[in-house]
């Protein structure tokens, strides 16, 4: 009987949610348009810490070879920074980046077209976004993944992805990308 009551409550809640949705104006992407909403849950300054990454970017290696394109935009009423990567080598990936007010950290969940998943968390440190994984335990070595994004005075972004040992020392740099904003 308890399960039946719970199912009914959930169903009624879902119907109420749908009725609220149908009363909202939708934007051209089919998302709820909250541009006139003065009650924004994700509009405080900390939710803008990663906004320097927003835009349409072409990414190069350190010697100027093009690596791919990256598109970043805010979605879900400013609560999520969504990344869509298209690499020139055929790799693609998407990340969802968000500030979690419960632990006061930025989080990233990355998934690529090979099924790889990387979860990171961190914060803005000295005008640089620094996100790090939990410890990956391997047979031969335990490592952390750490990615840093920094805005240069030229308006470019440098992204550096390192593997760290348990003492937080760099053991391998996996990627350095120079982001140039598309005109």
Notable characteristics:
mainly beta, 12% helix, single chain, 48% strand, ten-stranded antiparallel barrel, 1 helix, 183 residues
What features would you describe in this structure?
A hairpin with a 2-residue loop joins strand 6 and strand 7. The longest helix is centred in the first third of the chain and has 22 residues. A ten-stranded antiparallel beta barrel has the order 1-2-3-4-5-6-7-9-10-11. It is mainly beta. Helices cover 12% and strands 48% of the residues. The chain has a single domain, classed as Lipocalin. It is globular. About 13% of the residues have low confidence. It starts with a helix and ends with a strand. It is built from one helix and eleven strands; from the N terminus they run H-E-E-E-E-E-E-E-E-E-E-E.
Q: What can be said about this structure in brief?
A:
The chain is mainly beta. Helix content is 12%, strand content 48%.
Helix content: 10-25%
As for the CATH topology, it is Lipocalin
- Strand residues, percent: over 45%
Order of helices and strands: HEEEEEEEEEEE
Name of the CATH architecture = Beta Barrel
In this structure, how is the largest beta sheet organized?
Answer: 10 strands, antiparallel, barrel
CATH class: Mainly Beta
Question: How many domains is the backbone divided into?
Answer: 1
Question: What is the fourth-level CATH superfamily?
Answer: Calycin beta-barrel core domain
| Low-confidence segments | 10-26, 29-34
Give the class from helix and strand content and strand pairing: mainly beta
The averaged pLDDT comes out at: 86
């Amino acid at each position: 009987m308890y399960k039946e009551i719970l199912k009914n409550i959930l169903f009624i809640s879902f119907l109420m949610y749908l009725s609220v949705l149908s009363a909202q104006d939708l934007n051209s992407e089919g998302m709820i348009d909250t541009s006139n909403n003065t009650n924004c849950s994700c509009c405080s300054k900390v939710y803008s810490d990663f906004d320097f990454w927003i835009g349409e970017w072409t990414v190069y290696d350190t010697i100027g070879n093009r690596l791919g394109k990256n598109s970043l935009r805010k979605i879900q009423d400013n609560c999520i920074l969504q990344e869509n990567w298209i690499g020139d080598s055929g790799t693609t990936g998407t990340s969802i980046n968000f500030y979690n007010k419960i632990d006061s950290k930025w989080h990233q969940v990355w998934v690529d077209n090979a099924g790889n998943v990387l979860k990171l968390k961190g914060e803005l440190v000295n005008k640089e976004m620094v996100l790090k994984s939990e410890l990956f335990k391997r047979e031969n070595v335990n490592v952390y993944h750490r990615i840093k994004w920094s805005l240069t005075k030229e308006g470019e972004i440098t992204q550096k992805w390192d593997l760290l040992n348990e003492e937080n020392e760099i053991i391998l740099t996996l990627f350095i990308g120079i982001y140039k904003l598309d005109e």
